């Protein structure tokens, strides 16, 4: 298994604070829940990786998914 990571600055959809998120880019698409490092609210992350290695992170309220 090849594990590849990168980072992206995200804004918490609950408290609005920005922080650096470590992103696993070894999968083409992932969904997972992780607590905000600032307010501890559960954030639903959707990570999509393109064929060229670029990635998009969508951070949503857990109830909006």
What features would you describe in this structure?
- The structure is a single chain.
- With 65 residues, the chain is mainly beta.
- The chain has one domain (5-64).
- The chain is built from no helices and five strands.
- The protein has strands spanning 5-11, 18-24, 29-35, 42-49, 55-61.
- The protein has a three-stranded antiparallel sheet with strand order 3-4-5, with no helix packed on it.
- The chain is elongated.
Keywords for this structure?
65 residues, mainly beta, three-stranded antiparallel beta sheet, two-stranded antiparallel sheet, 55% strand
Write the layout of secondary structure elements.
Elements: E1 5-11, E2 18-24, E3 29-35, E4 42-49, E5 55-61
Antiparallel strand pairs: 1-2, 3-4, 4-5
Which strand order does the major sheet show? 3-4-5
Q: Tell me about the biggest sheet? A: 3 strands, antiparallel
Which residues form runs of ≥5 with pLDDT under 50? none
- Oligomer description: single chain
Number of helices: 0
Overall outline: elongated
Number of strands: 5
């Amino acid at each position: 298994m090849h594990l590849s990571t990168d980072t992206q600055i995200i804004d918490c959809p609950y408290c609005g604070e920005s922080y650096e998120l470590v992103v696993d880019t070894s999968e083409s698409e992932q969904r997972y829940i992780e607590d905000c490092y600032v307010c501890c609210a559960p954030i639903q992350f959707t990570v999509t990786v393109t064929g060229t290695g670029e990635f998009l992170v969508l951070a949503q309220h857990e109830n909006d998914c």
